[in-house]
Amino acid sequence: MATSKVEYLGQLSTKLTHLRSGKEIITDAPVDNNGKGQAFSPTDLVSTALCSCMMTLMGMYAERAEIDITSMTAEITKNMASNPRRIAEVIIEFDMSGITATEKERIKLERAALTCPVALSLSPELKQVVNFNY
């Protein structure tokens, strides 16, 4: 079974539908690439998916270790390159200040994040800068 469906809405916008759940995401081209910047761009989604994947893997470890990480947040900065236009760098700043974990648990949380499938699937040329702030 297919995972998702994408429809072109016109004016550089698309609608993504997750087929199993029916949940939808609208995308728009960024302002610096002829779009209106009114929604996530496809490259925003890649950068944000990287962070979401890292959080999910940390959540899997945290559940097994009975660590509450529900206060965790992150901010993502995406830097683009040209020739060819591509994502050159993703910077993820995790705010872990509300998490109570031992040093050993912190290392395991961070290791889980850095081995997420999205991180491992992206080109080695894409610089991934990940900071965990406790």
Oligomeric status of the shown chains? single chain
- Shape assignment: globular
Count of all domains: 2
CATH H-level superfamily title of the largest domain: K homology (KH) domain
The main pleated sheet reads as: 3 strands, antiparallel
CATH architecture of the largest domain: 2-Layer Sandwich
CATH topology of the largest domain: GMP Synthetase, Chain A, domain 3
Q: What's the arrangement of strands in the largest beta sheet?
A: 1-2-3
For the termini, the CA-CA separation is 41 Å
Indicate the radius of gyration in whole angstroms. Answer: 17 Å
Total beta strands: 6
**What is the beta-strand fraction?**
25-35%
Output the CATH class name of the largest domain: Alpha Beta
Could you provide a short overview of the structure?
By secondary structure, this protein is an alpha+beta fold.
Describe the structure.
The chain is an alpha+beta fold and 134 residues long. It folds into two domains: 4-33, no CATH class; 42-133, GMP Synthetase, Chain A, domain 3, CATH 3.30.300.20. The protein is 31% helix and 33% strand. The protein contains three helices and six strands. The chain has helices at residues 42-65, 103-114, 117-121, and strands at 4-10, 13-18, 24-28, 73-81, 86-95, 127-133. The strands form two sheets. It has a three-stranded antiparallel β-sheet, with no helix packed on it. It has a three-stranded mixed β-sheet with strand order 4-5-6, with helices on one face. A hairpin with a 4-residue loop joins strand 4 and strand 5. Helix 1 runs antiparallel to helix 2. The model has no long low-confidence stretch (mean pLDDT 97).
